[in-house]
Every structure is written in C-alpha cells, then in structure tokens.
Amino acid sequence: MTSVTFVNCPYLPPSTDIVGKPSITNSTSLAKENDTVTLTCTSTNAERIVWSRNPDGATLSSDNRTLSFKVKRSDSGDYRCNASNPASEQTSDTITITVAYGPENVKVNAQRSPSNSFISLECSADSVPPATYHWRLNGADIKKQQSSLQIDQKNAENEGTYTCVANNSVTQFTAMDSLHINATTGKC
Questions:
Q1: C-alpha torsion sign, points 20, 26, 29, 33
Q2: DSSP letter string over 74-108?
Q3: Which letter, b or e, does each residue of 3-35 get, where b requires 16 or more Cβ atoms within 10 Å of its Cβ?
Q4: Which entry of 50, 111, 114, 134 is 20 to 30 Å from 184 by CA?
Q5: Is the distance from CB of 142 to CB of 149 less than 8 angstroms?
Q6: The whole model's pTM is what?
Q7: pLDDT tens per residue, the chain (188 residues)?
Q8: Closest Cα partner for 123 from 158, 167, 81?
Q9: How many Å apart are CA 146 and CA 139, to the nearest integer?
Q10: Edge to edge, what strands does the sheet with 140-142 contain?
Q11: pLDDT value of position 69
Q12: Largest Cα–Cα distance in the chain?
C-alpha cells in the first residue's frame, strides 16, 4: 500500500518576486504651513503602493508611488508606505513630517506678587517650533529674551506699555501683545 501526504503551501505565481522593503524620500521634514511636500515610496517588485499616516492611521492614497500635497498643521505626523504584490508585502520605516506655523494667539498675563512689590508678566504663543520672545517698554527694546518678565512696581520708571514680541525662526512670522502697567498703583 502506498501512502500519499499532502502539504498545503501558499501559491506563489512563478513570475512574481518578493517585494523589497520600501523606502521613503521626502522633499523636507520641516515644512511651513501651505508649503508643498512630496513623498516618494521606492520598492522593488511592488505592484501596489498604499500610503498611511499616524496618529489617525488614515489611508492617504493607493497605487501612488509619489504623494504630493499642500500641508496644514494637522498634517504633522508619521508617514509610511506599504508595497505589495500577489507574493508578498512590506512596510517602510516611518518618516516624520513637522508643519511649522505661528506664532499666533500671543497673550500677556500679569500677576502681582503676594507682597505687591513686583508684577510678573508671562507671554505665551501658539507656535511650532516654539516661539522666541523679547520685550519692549513703550516701544524700546528691553534686554530680556525670555517669555517672562518681572517688574518692580515701586519704580515709576517701570510704568508704561509692555509689549511681548513672539518670533518663529522657521516661518519668519512675528506677533505681539501689549499690556499697560501703572507702576505706582500696580494696575494693569
């Protein structure tokens, strides 16, 4: 009696080679809002390319080796491409795109010290990368290059309009907010 053994092997079409691990080239990893970014996925033996983006996992396009789009700040994230054919599939390493914007929504907040001897000003802005700050008093620059400033409110020379200037080194945009301080009364 002859014994027959069947082995279940997945079918690979004879003319299909294994897909090579895809790689992504990009026009830039740091783009300004509304710039055009171009990503290209390269893989050997791929018949289909599918793009996806994290954090939401959205499929951006299929069967496109090149993805080109005007970026918004919500487009910041990790991108990858998946290359496939009937025999196999491979996913690229991720590439991170950061979209620069701002500064926007610049705000100066004032807070008096418990002893009422000084006032602390704090400046904030929405900006990627983070904004750099400097201060002006009545239009003249103060040698203070950070987001906070302390004012001795008992000194009459400190009375006036304080302006926080926020700058983004990538977008080259500047925005500001001002607050008037009456040094002798401490009123803002």
A1: negative
A2: GG-EEEEEEEE-SS-EEEPPPEEEEEEEEEEEEEE
A3: eeeeeeeeeeeeeeeebeebebeeeeeebebee
A4: 134
A5: yes
A6: 0.77
A7: 555 555 554 555 554 689 999 999 998 888 999 999 999 999 999 999 998 888 665 566 666 788 888 999 999 999 999 999 999 999 999 999 999 999 999 999 999 888 878 899 999 999 999 999 999 999 999 978 899 999 987 888 889 999 999 999 999 999 999 999 886 555 55
A8: 167
A9: 17
A10: 140-142, 132-137, 160-167, 174-181
A11: 86
A12: 112
Let me know if domain 101-181 sits in CATH 2.60.40.10: yes
The sign of the torsion formed by the CA atoms of 145, 149, 154, 159 equals positive
Token representation of residue 181: 């301080």
**CATH 2.60.40.10 domain residues, the chain:** 23-93, 101-181
- pLDDT, position 86: 92
**How is residue 151 written in tokens?**
């004012």
Distance CA 108, CA 148 (A): 9
Nearest to 181 by CA among 141, 145, 150, 146: 150
In this prediction, residue 62 carries a pLDDT of 63
148, two tokens: 């906070």
Chain-centre distance of CA 181, in angstroms?
Answer: 35
Query: Is 157 in a helix, a strand, or coil?
Result: helix
Tokens representing 40?
A: 């290209």
- Its CATH class, for the domain covering 23-93, is mainly beta
Place of tokens 């790689």: 23
